[in-house]
UniProtKB/TrEMBL annotation:
It comes from Acetobacterium bakii. The keyword Nucleotide-binding applies. One of its GO terms (cellular component) is cytoplasm. This is ATP-grasp domain-containing protein. One of its GO terms (molecular function) is coenzyme F420-2 alpha-glutamyl ligase activity. Residues 109-293 form the ATP-grasp domain. It comes from the Bacteria. Signal peptide: none annotated. Keywords: ATP-binding, Nucleotide-binding.
Length: 307
């Protein structure tokens, strides 16, 4: 079974990528590192199983691990859509990455489809948003964050209307290039959250991230991991979110509310490596084996051609 790791070969030092490649080497897994920016996106009714990567011609893989991280743009999105269209299992899919990258979209989809899951009230900041309006809609403190941030970057706690006014003036003047959202602060969850890790959209393991020095629980900000077994209702909620957002391998994070209430915080596609990589690759094999034969293969077989 052939796989591709979609990653710039010059950016292989990410800890998660290092762990993946170690398991790949130890188990002699057929996984080729392919730069997604070099893949030519061609939509062809007569597709014959060949994909052009730079000046090379490569056979279509059985699966790809989409771990390009910083190279998310129209081209790499089109690469994923092309691979999916020819029957390649993409971990994760274009739809998944689109859904989880946009924190507001995540909440909107949940609000539309899953009534029993709570999430913090969220406001999209525009040029029309002023501190007085924020004070009408929220009680302080509130959380202000960039839409596409990760590892706790671009997240601040705002305690007063004056602080909000200063931050809104700064973001308007700086033209940051990313959307900003303001969220209700779930005070009971200050410095901690729950991460439910999913493999093939199903519960794999869970842990709490705790940080006694900051309201942000991220490991990159000094947080620590504590193993935790969530209530069954939370696990079921995580799997519902995963199904809705089309998360194959990733996580759903929750905040701790009052009276044993949990609030959806965000969802992630491949958030570091929080599951057993050996099991991940075994799971990939099963998923590939259970996928339907793509149309192009059926067409070639009908024509008596090999692929």
């Amino acid at each position: 079974m052939k796989g591709w790791l979609l990653r710039n070969p010059g950016k292989m030092n990410d800890p998660s990528i290092v762990k993946i490649m170690k398991v790949v080497d130890e188990n002699k897994i057929d996984l080729t590192v392919v730069d997604p920016l070099k893949i030519h996106v061609i939509c062809d009714h007569e597709f014959d199983g060949r994909i052009y990567v730079g000046d090379e011609v490569m056979d279509v893989p059985d699966y790809v691990i989409a771990a390009f991280f910083t190279e998310k743009n129209y081209h790499t999105a089109a690469v994923l859509r092309m691979l999916e269209s020819v029957g390649v299992l993409c971990i994760n899919s274009y739809d998944c990455i689109k859904n989880v990258d946009d924190k507001l979209l995540t909440f909107q989809k949940v609000a539309e489809s899953i009534d029993e899951i709570y999430f913090p009230k969220t406001l999209l900041v525009t040029e029309q948003t002023d501190a007085a309006f924020v004070s009408r809609v929220f009680e302080y403190p509130v959380v202000m964050k960039v839409m596409h941030g990760s590892k706790g970057k671009g997240v601040v706690l705002v305690n007063t209307e004056k602080e909000m006014d200063n931050l809104l003036n700064m973001t308007t003047a700086s033209e940051m290039g990313d959307e900003i959202i303001i969220q209700e602060c779930i005070k009971a969850s200050t410095g901690r959250d729950l991460r439910v890790v999913l493999c093939n959209g199903k519960y794999d393991n869970a842990f709490v991230r705790e940080n006694k020095e900051s309201f942000r629980s991220n490991l990159a900000k000094g947080g620590k991991i504590v193993k935790y077994t969530p209530p069954t209702a939370v696990l079921e909620a995580a799997e519902k979110v995963a199904e809705l957002l089309k998360i194959n391998m990733g996580s759903v994070d929750f905040l701790f509310g009052e009276n044993d209430t949990f609030y959806l915080c965000e969802a992630n596609a491949m958030p570091g490596i929080a599951f057993d990589l050996h099991e991940m690759f075994k799971n990939l094999v099963k998923q590939v084996e259970n996928m339907p034969k793509p149309l192009w293969k059926k067409r070639l077989e009908k024509e008596g051609k090999s692929c």
